[in-house]
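A quick aside before the break. I want you to see a complete sequence-to-structure record at least once, exactly as it would be stored in a machine-readable document. Don't worry about memorizing anything.
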Amino acid sequence: MSAGSHKKTILLVALAFLVPVLLAKLALEQDWFNKASTNKGQLLNPPLDLSVLDGTQRWRLLYILPEDCDKACENALISINQVWMALGREQDRAEPVVIATEVSDDRPAEHLQQFPNIRLLTSSQQVVKQVFKDVPTDGIFLVDTMNNVILKYPLQQEQQQAVLHSRDILADLRKLLKLSRIG
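That is the input. The structure line, written in tokens, reads:
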């Protein structure tokens, strides 16, 4: 074997190891793919502390009643109830919760009577603003057992879209319940 072909072989072997590493580094730096994010909701980073409003040691599906309860509000109430019901034998580890403030629409109270599983909390608007700071409250939230509001899901005007979106919430909650030993 000549010295030229020996150098050529060493160069090819080195390239065989270096090219994949360089391509992987380039793919990470250029954001060519999703970086292992499997949750369907918007991750709240840092999480919000809900302990001033509710100290329950369960996972919670949380909705804050707005001033005017429109179709999206009604769909949110249906969604949190349906997601909780779909948990089946895991229902005792989670709970649907609705927070009403002094400015919340009174009409959903009738709606909530249809869903005896939803717990209604009352709070002042000031405390809700203190907890949610700069995060808009127009969504469904997922709260962990340590009272951290960790995920937010957008509201849906169309009932069909709300049903499809409920599947995303359910998928995230089931995954978290599977990984969690608490609650």
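Two observations worth writing down. The chain has a mean pLDDT of 90. DSSP finds five helices and six strands in the chain. We'll return to this after the break.
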